[in-house]
């Protein structure tokens, strides 16, 4: 059985780590956002606008990162593609769950 190179192992594990953290964070972000939107007012409208623009920019960044990684680091395409979405989700979780 061939052994994996040490540099390749983190590349293989990273997408799973990102996905696991997003699995925990996404429901928290959705819940916090729904509460803000349900309360209405300017804050609810702002949150709705922000939600749409953040998703658009995060998925655009993910597409570009995955495309660039296809050429520069083929084994890390998934990790590079998930990273911008993961950053956005993590930032939203921190922002929305602050007291």
General description of the model:
The chain has helices at residues 8-39, 41-72, 77-96. It is mainly alpha-helical and 99 residues long. It has a domain at 55-99. The longest helix is centred in the N-terminal third of the chain and has 32 residues, at 8-39. The chain is elongated and about 45 Å long.
Uncertain runs are none
For the record, give the distance between the C-alpha atoms at the N and C termini, rounded to a whole number: 52 Å
- Secondary structure category: mainly alpha
Mean pLDDT level: 86
Percent strand equals under 5%
Overall outline: elongated
Question: What order do the SSEs take from the amino end to the carboxyl end, as H and E?
Answer: HHH
The profile of the biggest β sheet is: none
Helix percent reads over 70%
Radius of gyration, in Å, reads 17 Å
**Strand tally:** 0
What are the defining features of this structure?
99 residues, mainly alpha, elongated, transmembrane helix, transmembrane, membrane
